[in-house]
């Protein structure tokens, strides 16, 4: 082999020789996600790893998601069945979550349930747009506004759609302060938004300890397929409330969830390869995800209006918007909107009830979908 052949062989082996127009587009998209995470602070813990993963997987000849590639190995271990990464994330969420607001006012659980309506309506819409039933179920779960649950369901029902589904789920979660207020104002009057609510009552330590155990047993009887998600969520919460395993609770809240978040984000980004992401199907998923999120918000607010009427004006309908499981962003949006109508109104703790119930509701909805179409 002479020098010219060696140079020609090297030139053919470079990424430049195998690069088309799609790869730079995906690099730009990955860069946009990183920009939104750093400068706009939109879900930075996920968007930065996802954006970098999207750049890595679209390097020509990189082979990171091919058999033998390290991202492929991590993906198969953590996201494909049994989906350890989303489950560990749920463990950490449970350890970080205080279910006290829900226990102090149990009827707000209905608002968290009502907000899941967007999942099932969007499922039907996705079927109407040409997706099969499993794909439609994976797309619909975006309406729960729960990233780990969306990844968990997509990994089982529609692995090939994981990238756009995860991007839609986390993007809309980050845009809660932009998406929800117009829907809340459209569906409520200023007088309804100004309704004050009585201070929540204290919840005993025993009740907080019994709640995760009771929830797991109830879920096991009604929706066994939701046990992986609900079980890890409630185990993490039990570690928090037990008061005698602080080291375990802190590990779940910090080191463990942080390590898994890094690999989860990179693996999700690595599913955004150009051929599968740059297609009309991705645009449809983004549109359906927005519909699911909007319908979920509307479902919670409308039930809140009904509860306001039934209680003689003791429930502010805005707290229904927090029924989506974007914790605690949705509850903060409720607080802001309530104070715009009534500066003396403090709805944050009331909104946390349906907000944390939304986490449970989205996990139960995922279990129902997996049972029906999995």
Q: How many strand units? A: 0
Outline: globular
Q: Please tell me the overall pLDDT.
A: 90
Enumerate the spans where pLDDT stays under 50 for 5 or more consecutive residues.
Answer: none
Terminal CA distance reads: 56 Å
Strand content: under 5%
**Helical/strand content category:** mainly alpha
Major pleated sheet: none
- Domain unit count: 1
Elements, N to C (H/E): HHHHHHHHHHHHHHHHHHHH
Count, helices: 20
Cα-based radius of gyration, to the nearest Å: 22 Å
Name the helicity range. over 70%
Describe this entry's structure for a reader.
This protein has one domain. It has 20 helices and no strands. It has 374 residues and is mainly alpha-helical. It has helices at residues 3-13, 22-39, 44-57, 70-78, 84-96, 100-104, 109-114, 117-128, 133-140, 147-157, 162-174, 176-187, 190-193, 205-222, 227-242, 246-270, 274-277, 280-310, 329-341, 348-373. The mean pLDDT is 90. The radius of gyration is 22 Å and the shape is globular.
């Amino acid at each position: 082999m002479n020098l010219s052949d060696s140079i020609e062989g090297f030139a053919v082996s470079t990424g430049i020789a195998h690069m088309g127009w799609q790869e730079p587009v995906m690099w730009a998209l990955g860069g946009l996600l990183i920009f939104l995470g750093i400068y706009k602070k939109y879900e930075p813990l996920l968007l930065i790893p996802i954006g970098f993963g999207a750049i890595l997987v679209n390097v020509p000849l990189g082979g990171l998601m091919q058999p033998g590639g390290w991202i492929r190995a991590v993906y198969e271990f953590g996201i494909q069945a049994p989906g350890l990464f989303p489950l560990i994330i749920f463990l950490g969420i449970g350890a970080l979550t205080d279910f006290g607001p829900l226990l102090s006012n149990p009827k707000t659980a209905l608002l968290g349930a009502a907000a899941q309506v967007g999942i099932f309506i969007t499922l039907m819409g996705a079927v109407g747009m040409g997706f099969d039933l499993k794909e439609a179920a994976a797309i619909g779960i975006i309406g729960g506004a729960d990233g780990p649950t969306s990844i968990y369901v997509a990994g089982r029902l529609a692995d090939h759609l994981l990238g756009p589904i995860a991007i839609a789920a986390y993007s809309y979660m980050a845009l809660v302060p932009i998406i929800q207020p117009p829907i809340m104002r459209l569906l409520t009057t200023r007088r309804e938004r100004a309704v004050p609510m009585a201070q929540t009552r204290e919840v005993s330590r025993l009740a907080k300890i019994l709640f995760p155990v009771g929830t797991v047993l109830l879920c096991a009887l009604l929706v066994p397929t939701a046990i992986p998600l609900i079980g890890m969520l409630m185990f993490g919460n039990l570690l928090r409330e037990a008061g005698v395993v602080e080291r375990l609770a802190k590990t779940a809240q910090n080191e463990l969830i942080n390590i898994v978040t890094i690999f989860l984000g990179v693996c999700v980004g690595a599913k955004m390869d150009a051929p599968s992401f740059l297609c009309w199907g991705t645009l449809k998923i983004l549109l359906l995800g927005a519909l699911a999120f909007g319908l979920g918000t509307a479902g919670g607010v409308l039930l809140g209006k009904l509860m306001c009427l039934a209680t003689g004006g003791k429930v502010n309908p805005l707290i229904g918007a927090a029924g989506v499981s974007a914790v605690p962003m949705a509850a903060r949006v409720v607080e802001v909107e309530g104070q715009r109508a009534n500066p003396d109104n403090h709805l944050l703790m009331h909104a946390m009830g349906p907000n944390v119930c939304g986490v449970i509701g989205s996990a139960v909805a995922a279990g129902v979908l997996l049972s029906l179409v999995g």
